[in-house]
Amino acid sequence: MSVMTQKASDTTGAAAPVVRETARQTRGAPLGAPAVTPTAPIAATIRISVQDINAFYGEKQALFGVNLEVPDNAITAFIGASGCGKSTLLRCLNRMNDTIPGARVEGRILMDGADINAADIDPVQVRTRIGMVFQKPNPFPISIYENIAFGARTHKLAATKAELDDIVERSLRRAALWDEVKDRLGKPGLGLSGGQQQRLVIARALAVSPAVILMDEPCSALDPIATAHIEALLEDLRKHTCIVIVTHSMAQAARVSQITAFFHMGELIESGPTDQIFTMPKVDQTQNYITGRFG
Amino acid sequence: MTTPVAHRPLTAGRRLHIGDTAFRISLFAAGAVVIVVLLSILTIMFVGGKQAFDTFGLGFISGTEWNPVTQIYGALPAITGTLLTAVLALLIAWPIGFGIAFFLTETCPERLRGPLGVAVELLAAVPSIVYGMWGFFVLAPFMAEYVQPWLTATFLWIPPIPDTFYWFTAPPIGVGLITASLVLAIMILPFIAATTRDVLQSTPQLLKDGAYAMGATRWEALTGVVIPAVRGSLFGAVFLGLGRALGETMAVVFVIGNAIRMPDSLMAPSATIASVVANSFPEAEPGTLDLAVLLALGFILFVVSFGVLAIARVLLRQERMS
């Protein structure tokens, strides 16, 4: 982790705010900390590099000079109160803000070294590489099969019906939904339960093999059992993907993530390994937020 | 120390809520007016037209001859003219109306959206008599001079049904089925466009975001996700337009040619139920078969329009429930 933050200061230079760059090595001895036991190692490779991002909705500035490195094969959690900018940053990462009239983003977001906002980069291609799961499950009003096949058809990933069948089955298996729906693939996706719908949407995102999956409070509309399903799934998925999750539940951030970033009023206050953020935050604001003394 | 609060126990017996009851009755009356008016119109039409049905039986609907002199009345020419003009108008207005709606909701620049939306609504505000005059003085001569000769030449290859229907092969006289259809198409265009726009706007943003997040283009999001989501409502919009086209009178009277006989081409002068009634009503004496026939025509039109609107309602509601 210290390697990672070191790299950050190398690339962003002097412009980077001090607090975020001086993360000391503070692992070990978590006092009553949530047990974080990563089963897969965090890769040292940085998948996404956010460099000095300012975001605006019309006149209103939603993000102020955010710098952040998002590692591969890890789950990065964005936490903070409503309106703190965490969802805005998430939507910057796959250029979904392009679809909002008046939205504007300054700064650079590099994915594997390429600027996703560059003039010659097609946002459609960015969104194919970076999948997204929303707060409320949003299956398309078509069959379960067609939901999964949508991306594969759109991007012509399958030449034959057999290949398409294969993509559908593989995606549903990865989303741990196959056994529940394999006998009713032709039925509408909207007929599934909320938790199943959310896994369907995750499978839909997985079908185009994205390198990154963004999740905007994916469990906030789900019951605890469905939430547990999704969280188990996330741990499995991160072996092959980079995952960024926005969550209002600090318990969830502590349970699932390896990296946590805390936002307040459009600024990134602090980021680092999850166990460190939750046990020994550097900044009082973080401390106040995670202990519930916020506001 | 807080003073103890004395709670009143529940007691038996209901108070009479006079105001509430009066309010409920007056609301019921308001609702009942609609039903009463509707049923009384239907009854008057049927009773008044009964003489026609008694005289000709089902032959009134299937009869092709309309001759006030010999007192032989068959409604099929008018029914055919009504359905043909309405369906043709729909075929013309549907794609354009959908195009306008898609443009307004998806690709239209923000600055243009307001003015264009208002313009579409203004189209609906033009009185039908104005459309009629425009159709007669501007559109019909234009059709006769340019469009009809071109149609005849272009569609000569469609095999005619001998002695029955010659499609686009007819003298270019301007007024007729196709001209009436064009005027009707312009008249129902704003309804189709506005209803379709409302349907598209009611598509949840979350659904569209889902498609965009999958790397879908606007076109792919529209055809793959939005249209399947609102398919029923889109058809509902079309049927609303059809319902209007069926009953439209004044504009049609101007441009259809008012010939009550089976049309032998798409350019032939023809008549619709509404135009026949409008043209013949002033001369129909009370108590005569002439008047009964017109009322019976009105009854048929009422039933057809009612059926079309009912279908539209069902289609529009389906989506709202799911």
Write the layout of secondary structure elements.
The complex is a heterodimer of chains A (295) and B (322).
Chain A: H1 2-12, H2 18-21, E1 46-57, E2 60-71, E3 75-79, H3 86-93, E4 103-111, E5 114-115, H4 123-129, E6 130-133, H5 144-154, H6 161-174, H7 178-181, H8 194-206, E7 212-216, H9 224-237, E8 242-246, H10 250-256, E9 259-264, E10 267-273, H11 274-279, H12 284-290
Chain B: H1 18-56, H2 59-62, E1 66-67, E2 72-73, H3 76-107, H4 110-125, H5 128-154, H6 177-201, H7 205-213, H8 218-247, H9 250-255, H10 273-280, H11 289-321
Antiparallel strand pairs in B: 1-2
Helix pairs in contact in B: 1-11, 3-6, 3-8, 3-10, 4-6, 5-6, 6-8, 7-8, 8-11, 10-11
Question: What features would you describe in this structure?
Answer:
The complex is a heterodimer of chains A (295) and B (322). Chain A contains twelve helices and ten strands. Chain A has helices at residues 2-12, 18-21, 86-93, 123-129, 144-154, 161-174, 178-181, 194-206, 224-237, 250-256, 274-279, 284-290, and strands spanning 46-57, 60-71, 75-79, 103-111, 114-115, 130-133, 212-216, 242-246, 259-264, 267-273. In chain A, helix 5 (144-154) crosses helix 6 (161-174), helix 5 (144-154) packs parallel to helix 8 (194-206) and helix 6 (161-174) packs across helix 8. The longest helix of chain A has 14 residues, at 161-174. Chain B has a single domain (77-321), classed as MetI-like (MetI-like fold), CATH 1.10.3720.10. In chain B, strands 1-2 form a two-stranded antiparallel sheet. With 322 residues, chain B is mostly helical. Chain B is 71% helix and 1% strand. Chain B is flat and about 100 Å long. Chain B has eleven helices and two strands, in the order H-H-E-E-H-H-H-H-H-H-H-H-H. The N and C termini of chain B lie far apart (56 Å). Classes of the chains: A alpha/beta (295), B mainly alpha (322). Chain A binds chain B through residues 94, 96, 99, 101, 124-128, 131-132, 134, 136, 138-142, 150-151, 153-155, 190, 201, 204-205, 208, and chain B through 110, 204, 206-217, 220, 224-225, 228-229, 322.
